[in-house]
Every structure is written in structure tokens, then in C-alpha cells.
């Protein structure tokens, strides 16, 4: 019982249950409508939290639904927000650090998953934060900020589920985003944190972008390699990989791969399987997302330049 | 090679054979080009010495368009870090026999160019700093009494001499134009300077000793 907060009723509340949902009619499973090499459309905007040094909001397009008798979408669309505080002085008790001290946190909102999460951080969130830190550490130029720390906090407003919601409700899984959805979330976290860090004006070697690719099982065909998988679109995900990629240097700062790659390498088919191919495709997904990130940074930088010129019309320039 | 209008981290700006990397840029060793480190407008500062290369830099922008800065012409609110040699404005928090504890409020660029056209940025967070007894004056260092030079609440102009240890920067006020610029008397009135070591309270007529900064 969480005594520090005002909790809801202990027994929980049940939403109204309509007759059509009880009729036992099952909708056909959602299918992936994009091409195998196409990523979902991204909405990315920076500078939305004025009190933070830098901030960004990231959202993936809501998947189309053509079930007229369903009020909600059966699959989720990732929504993330990131705030960056710093560089700011370290507390007095911290030892002298000649480099910038990076601290990352990923928080799931209680309403982010189909099953309500508690406020207390769990191991999944800490794992994501560790992967995010690895991805960002390779990008920040730490020597320019001695004795300082930066806090990066990513809040997941809506996460990726592994199954469509009615399948979750039917009890096929325990409803928590545990497996493949986390990888899409990490890919989004890397991109949104990179946008927020650039908004905060912290020196970076390049913009790091997250990309994710997966090998999925197809009903009557050999397994396929797809970019930006939505786990609820597929019957089974065999393996998946997330990378944090720097395009101007062709470097990868973070790799996280899960699953069984050897089981799908069959030598036949047009797409070669294998770990290297999976990582290469994840890099392709990152490159596709980079255009959106660069465009968002460009827009917000232009807005800042215009507002700084507008505010100081009679500024004395120093020689 | 002409500079792009707008740069973001990782964008190549120019070859290192023609430019020196300045603030906001970094050198990419493998390709010997200068890349941008932050988002902004790249500018280049022509070199002062004959024969040396101009400096490519990207000046930092204000945090966000919605964040209203202090409406004064040269001061902006950014996350600037005090560096060795930069001038600062700070406020005294504690006066001890061997040192004076201050908090840094405003950081000026390198070489401590105060007043006139010097660009100052108000720090978003206060940085702890210390002025040691031997750094208060340039001459007769052993005869200094800290309580005759500073009081709690004074605003002091100083220069950073060292990054210091885990909790403090080290400042010095050993030049004529460094020292206390604003002070309040014991009864609470604002005082004005009358010599290099005294402030005068216009209401009561009393004078108090401080290490006074020479006004421009």
C-alpha cells in the first residue's frame, strides 16, 4: 500500500462491458501494412518544457484501424517525452570529476501499459536506462564540462505492447510490456534523448538515432527481416536488434539484440538472415529516422535564432 | 568552402587546414575536418595574428523561445561553465579568517572583459567558489584581514584562477578593477565607494572597509 500518495480504490474499478464484446466475436489480428523496409512516421518536436535545459516529444503514427465497431485502437503507438537538466553543479559530496557525469532515467507512466504500473521503478525501467546511458555516453563530449552533471529523464506515456489489447485481456499474456515492445521503446528513447540533448546545447560528436529491426515469422513464407517492427502486428518475433547509430562517423554506440538468429538462417530466400544482416537493417532504420530528427532540430534552431534577434534590436556588439 | 546557414551536431563545417576549431565545434581526426558540436549558426572569427587561420565557432543560443530572459542587453541565461581566466560576478556567503566563500552568479567570457561590450551570461545554477586570503590582494598578501575586505551579501567582481576541488572554484581579486562592487552598510543602506579600501553610507555618513573594485 503506497502511503505517500493518494491511491485509487483498492479493489480497482471496472469499465463498462458492452454486449458486443461479450458476443465472442474475434476480430482478425492486425497485420503490418507497410513495406518491410518502411518505418512508421515519426512526430518529433523539441523545446516543449520551458523549465528544463532541453526537452523533446516523440510520437509514432497511430496504426490504421478499420474496425468500425471498436472504439479504441487495438494496437498502441509509442509516445515519449524527454527532459534534460544540466549541465549543473554536482552535489558537494560527489568526488571531483573532470568529465560530465551522465545520469539517465526511464520512467513509465502508470497508464503507459495495458496493465497499470506502479510508481516504484522496476527492473525493466532500470534496464532501459542502462542501455540508454550506453547509447548516449559515446556521443557526449564530456571534457568540456568538468565538475558538472547532466540528468536525462525519459517518460514513456504510451508503450508498445506485445499483443493486441483484446488478446491481452483474454489472458494470452500477462499484459506487461516485457519482451519485444521494450526494444521499440529503447529505439524511441535514444532518438528523443538525442533531440533533447541538442536542444539543451550540450556538445555532442553527432546526433545519435535509434533504429530497430526484427526477424518475424510469416504464416506461409520463410521468416522475414523487417524494419521498425510493431510486435502486435506479427504472430511471432524470432529475433530483434536495437542500435544507436551515428551517421556522420558510421559508428554504433549501442547494440541490444534478443532472440534466436540461427534458427531462421535457412540460406534460401532473398533476404539473408544472420546477426550481421539484422544489425545492418537496424542501422537502416536509424538512418531513415535521422531525417526527421535533423528536421526537428533545424526548425527549433531557426525559431531560437529568430527570437534572439527579435529581443535584442539595439544590442551593442562587442568588437 | 562556404559555411552552412544552420548547423547541427555532426555536420562537417570545414577542413582543419583552413580553420581552427573554436567553441561549439570539434575536430574529427580521421577526416581532418571540423564538425559542429551544437545546433546553431556557425560563424568565423578572422585571426588576429598574421598568417594564422581564422577560428570557426558556433555561439550558444538561448535555451528556448518561451523562456523569457532578463530584459537587459548583454546578459543571457545559459548553461555556461566558469573556465580558468573568465571573469565572474559573485555574492559573498561566508567570511572566514583564511578564505571567503562566495557563489558565482554571472560568468563573463575569457580574459574577464567586464563592462562595455563584454558578454555575460547569468548562470542557471549557482556555482560554489572560494577566494583565499592570499588571492584577495596582489601586494602585502600577509597583512590582509578578510573581514576588512568583504562582508556577507557583498557583490564581488573576480576572476577564476582554478577549477579547484570537488566543491569549489578558486577566484582571485588581486587587480585594481576586481573586488567589491556593491555593498550594504550594517544598518542596511546601499553604499558608494570612496577609495580603494572604503565604502561610504550616504544616509548615516559612516564609512566601512572593503576591498573596493575600481569603477570604469
From TrEMBL, chain A:
Exoribonuclease phosphorolytic domain residues? 38-202
This protein's name:
Exoribonuclease phosphorolytic domain-containing protein
Q: Which CDD domains match?
A: RNase_PH_MTR3 (cd11371)
Q: Could you confirm whether the keyword Nucleus appears in this record?
A: yes
Per UniProt, the keywords (alphabetical) are:
Cytoplasm, Exosome, Nucleus, RNA-binding, rRNA processing
Species assigned in the record: Lepraria finkii
Subcellular location(s) per record: Cytoplasm; Nucleus
Q: Which family does it belong to?
A: Belongs to the RNase PH family.
Annotated region described as Disordered, given as residue ranges: 1-36
InterPro entries the UniProt entry points to:
ExoRNase_PH_dom1 (IPR001247), PNPase/RNase_PH_dom_sf (IPR027408), Ribosomal_Su5_D2-typ_SF (IPR020568), RNase_PH (IPR050080)
From TrEMBL, chain B:
For this protein, the record's InterPro entries field holds:
Csl4, EXOSC1_C, Exosome_cplx_N_dom, NA-bd_OB-fold
Q: Establish whether keyword Ribosomal protein is in the entry.
A: no
Q: What is its main location?
A: nucleus
Q: Per the database record, which ranges form the Exosome complex component N-terminal domain?
A: 7-40
Tell me where it resides: Nucleus, Nucleolus
User: What are the Exosome complex component CSL4 C-terminal domain coordinates in residue numbering?
Assistant: 125-163
Q: Organism's domain of life?
A: Eukaryota
Keywords of this entry: Cytoplasm, Exosome
PANTHER family linked to this entry: 3'-5' EXORIBONUCLEASE CSL4-RELATED, EXOSOME COMPLEX COMPONENT CSL4
Q: Would you tell me the protein name for this molecule? A: Exosome complex component CSL4 C-terminal domain-containing protein
Query: What species is this protein from?
Result: Lepraria finkii
The top of its lineage is: Eukaryota, Fungi, Dikarya, Ascomycota, Pezizomycotina
